[in-house]
Design goal:
Length: 323
C-alpha cells in the first residue's frame, strides 16, 4: 500500500509539473511562499509584449482559514486563466476577496476570471480608482495592452472593483487584517499601498519596481513617489517595520535591498532635472549626463525607452514647483 501511495504521489507531482504555466523561453511561473501565509508569483521583469502575453506584474495570494485573498491578479483574461490555475495549485479554498492597487489594467483586468468563478467575491480598490477606471482608465489601458500584446480576447466586459476603500481604512477578511495607505500622488493618483498586518508584509504596487521601468502618467508624481518610499523607510505616516516588501514588478525582499534601487534612481532623475532647470537647459540637453550617472540601471528593462520620459516628467515637476 505504501508503495502504491508513493507512486500515486510522484505521479501527481509529475502531472502538476507537466501542466505548469510556461511562457516560452521566459520559463515557468507559479506562486511561491514568501512569508508566513503569503505567496507571490513574480512576473517577467519586462514591458508587456507578445512574448509575455501581457503578464508582467506580481499577483499575490494570502491564505486564510476559510479562503484566499488575491492582490492584483493580472493584466487580461488569458493571463487570468493561468493565474487562477496556479492559485488552485496552492489551495482549493475559494477566493473570498481581491484587492487592486491602482487603475492600470495590467494589474486588474484578470479580476474577470475570479469573478466568473466566484460571482460574490468582493473586489476592493480606492473609491477614486473605481471612478477613474470606469471613466476612461480601463479603456485607455485596454488600448495600450491590446496594441502591445494582442492578447485581450475575453477581457471585456471589465470586472471593475465593487467595494471601495479609503486612506487608512482597515479591512478584515476571514481573520486577515489589511490597512490601506493612499498617498496624494505617487505612481498614480489612485494608488493604495496595502499592509497585511498578520504577516507584516507591505504591498507597494507600482510605487516600487525593481529591474524594470514603467511609465509615469499625467496623474503621477516623481516627487510624490520619492516621498512615499522615504516615508516607508523612515516609518512615517503609519508605516511600520515589515518582514517583506512586495513591489508591483520585480523581486520582493527586505527593506533596503528592495526599496533603495528605485528610490535612488528617482533621486538621480530629479537631481538631473533640477540641474538642467537651474542652468536654463532643456531636459534633453542633460539626458546623456544623467544616463551616465545611471550605470547601475543600464541592465534594467526598458531604460532606453523610459529614462528620457522620466527626465522630462521630472523637469516639468521641478518647473511647476518654481511657480
Amino acid at each position: 500500500m505504501k508503495k502504491v501511495a508513493l507512486i500515486a504521489s510522484v505521479a501527481m507531482v509529475f502531472s502538476l509539473s507537466l501542466n505548469a504555466w510556461t511562457l516560452g523561453k521566459l520559463g515557468d511561473f507559479k506562486f511561491e511562499k514568501v512569508n508566513d501565509n503569503v505567496y507571490v508569483m513574480h512576473g517577467p521583469v519586462m514591458m508587456p509584449n507578445k512574448e509575455n502575453g501581457g503578464f508582467m506584474n506580481n499577483p499575490a495570494l494570502i491564505e486564510s482559514k476559510n479562503g484566499l485573498i488575491v492582490i492584483d491578479p493580472g493584466g487580461n483574461y488569458n493571463v487570468g486563466k493561468n493565474v487562477l490555475a496556479e492559485v488552485e495549485k496552492v489551495s482549493k479554498k475559494p477566493v473570498i476577496a481581491i484587492f487592486n492597487t491602482h487603475k492600470h489594467g495590467d494589474h486588474w483586468f484578470a479580476n474577470k476570471n475570479f469573478q466568473e468563478k466566484y460571482p460574490n467575491v468582493k473586489i476592493y480598490a480606492l473609491a477614486y480608482m473605481i471612478e477613474q477606471a470606469k471613466d476612461n482608465a480601463a479603456e485607455t489601458w485596454y488600448g495600450i495592452l491590446g496594441s502591445l500584446t494582442g492578447n485581450l480576447e475575453g477581457t471585456k466586459p471589465f470586472a471593475f472593483p465593487n467595494s471601495s476603500v479609503d486612506h487608512k481604512e482597515t479591512v478584515v477578511v476571514d481573520g486577515q487584517t489589511f490597512i490601506m495607505r493612499h498617498p496624494a500622488a505617487g505612481h498614480t493618483d489612485t494608488d493604495i499601498l496595502i499592509e497585511h498586518v498578520n504577516s507584516k508584509t507591505l504591498f507597494l504596487g507600482d510605487n516600487l519596481m525593481k529591474n524594470r521601468f514603467g511609465a509615469f502618467d499625467e496623474s503621477s508624481s516623481i516627487f510624490g513617489n520619492i516621498q512615499i518610499l522615504e516615508n516607508v523607510i523612515a516609518k512615517k505616516d503609519g508605516y511600520k517595520d515589515y518582514k517583506l516588501y512586495v513591489p508591483g514588478h520585480g523581486p520582493s525582499g527586505k527593506l533596503h535591498e528592495t526599496l533603495d534601487p528605485f528610490l535612488n534612481y528617482m533621486k538621480i532623475i530629479i537631481a538631473g532635472a533640477q540641474k538642467a532647470y537651474k542652468n536654463g537647459m532643456e531636459s534633453y540637453e542633460i539626458k546623456e549626463e544623467v544616463y551616465n550617472n545611471l550605470k547601475d540601471y543600464h541592465k534594467w528593462d526598458d531604460i532606453e525607452g523610459q529614462m528620457g520620459k522620466h527626465l522630462m516628467k521630472a523637469y516639468s515637476e521641478v518647473e511647476m514647483r518654481d511657480f
